[in-house]
Specification:
Blueprint: H1 2-30, E1 40-46, E2 52-59, E3 66-68, E4 80-82, H2 88-124
Antiparallel strand pairs: 1-2, 3-4
Helix pairs in contact: 1-2
């Protein structure tokens, strides 16, 4: 029974980590047009208990996209300003990957729940 509980804890922590990742993807997509915005990334850290958690949030240090718009308030004398480094295709791919990871953890959690429920039913007889 302890293994079932630890597997449920591992899958629950995986779902929480994927949710944190999905939140950052949402922030990145919302700020795709914000000048000077750098894409946020999160790495997962495995813990000694067998669970996982979302680690420290880092900023993508790739080059910001130069945008030409002389009428923009942040434009320099040549008419360019720094846009964001968010790639919407990459963010959608990350969102799908986070969704799939969440669903896999959810299935694992549900299987462990069904197994523990079946074990309790057998013990009642």
């Amino acid at each position: 029974m302890t293994d079932l509980i630890s597997s449920m804890a591992a899958s629950a922590s995986g779902m929480a980590a994927q949710s944190a990742r999905m939140r950052l993807v949402g922030e990145n997509i919302a700020n795709a047009d914000t000048p000077g915005y750098r894409r946020k990334l999160v790495a997962f850290e495995s813990l000694a208990s067998g669970t996982v958690e979302a680690g420290r949030v880092t900023l993508d240090q790739s080059q910001l996209v130069r945008q030409y718009d002389p009428s923009h308030p942040m434009a320099d004398t040549s008419g360019y300003y720094d846009g964001s480094n968010v790639n919407l295709v990459l963010e959608i791919a990350d969102a799908r990957e986070a969704q799939r990871g969440y669903e896999a953890n959810l299935r694992l959690f549900d299987q462990a729940r069904q197994m523990s429920s079946a074990a309790l039913t057998l013990l009642r007889r």
